[in-house]
Amino acid sequence: MKTEKRLASEMKDSGVGWIGEIPEGWKIEKIGRSFETISSGTTPESSNLKYYEDGTINWVVTGDLNNSKLVACTNKITSLAMHDYSTLKIYPKNSLLIAMYGATIGKISLLDVEACTNQACCVLSGSQLFDMRFVFYWFYTSKEHIISLSYGGGQPNISQKLIRSLRLPRASMFEQETIVSFLDSETSKIQQLIGAKTKQIELLQEHEKSLIHHTVTKGLDPKAKMKYSGVKWIGEIPEGWGAKPISREYEVQLGKMLQPEPSQDAELKPYLRTANVFWNNFDLTEVNEMYVSSREKDQFSIVPGDLLVCEGGDVGRSAIWMGKIQECYIQNSLHRIRPLGKNQNKFLYYCLFAANSKGEVEKVCSKATIAHYTLVKIKRTKVPIPSPAEQKIISSFLDSETSKIHNAIDKIENEIVKLEEYRKSLIYEVVTGKVKVS
What residues pair up with 116 in beta bridges, in sequence order? Predict the structure, then answer.
């Protein structure tokens, strides 16, 4: 198949601003009048195990939606749930599901199995006017426009009423099928390219982990004589090195617990939490404030060069603070680490990255419940300790090498973004008839 731009004389105004012009022979249809079923579902009482145990009926939640065919569901419910909840209905294969709420808003899937849904999915099925695969592609390329019509504060929502009011272009059924065949083929090629590039990123990330672990445990001298460190995740280290608990070489301070009311002479000050700390990076788009008294300022303040380590959340995740906020403090979900003597915080950062990549931090924290990298646990964590001079050389080497890896990853990620943009643009041009498929 091939595509070609239509001549202006073959086009007409659709009457829908964001759609623009459509071919002369096409029409604009309102969704509310185009489908036999526009409905949703519900959530059976979660505490009643009779609704879920040994369930055999597919029950879709918005987290299942994958912008593709939905071949399996995370959850299943029982016939009793169907009996007790009249709003539950089994929808046929080829029904289109649209997420209406929260973080997944606008995500879609075409059912490849029979299923019912929760209340956050809108279901379209049964149309004499549309090929459901054509509608799928239209919703895929219309996501941003639909979300722009949403309501709500922090988490936007769309409703069945809004979806019913949407209008979409309609070609003849034959042309819809031709368009779908073309897009299936072309988007599959694009997805293969994206998949290959995603694999490249994964390989680069694995290379980074391997490089950092090897360098912080073996050093940069390939001829150095080795000895066993006594620590499994570290393995062998050069003879002149040691393997010591972090508390022997670094000062560790857990952050301040939040308090609802100020103590005497306390002031509101900005503070960091786990949501702000990423590997070797910070997200400062949302920095909250807490009460800090004058006697607490030295104890919980951070200065450029401090290593901040997540006590909760993604435990062990670390970054070096560069002082982007002049006066800032840490909450008790973070540890602040400062070197004793001439040890290097950047070297310790790379050690924690290596320990994390080898599963050591997760093992130490034991995720039986909610993982916490407590003050005691982080102090006891053993890391390789070369001389301060060698720590500095190793850190500089890893800064340079990981920067190259990150630049390569950034370049590939940009290529993926461009491919995704091209896919959306292609789908939009084709499903609105601006590009003719023949």
Answer: 59
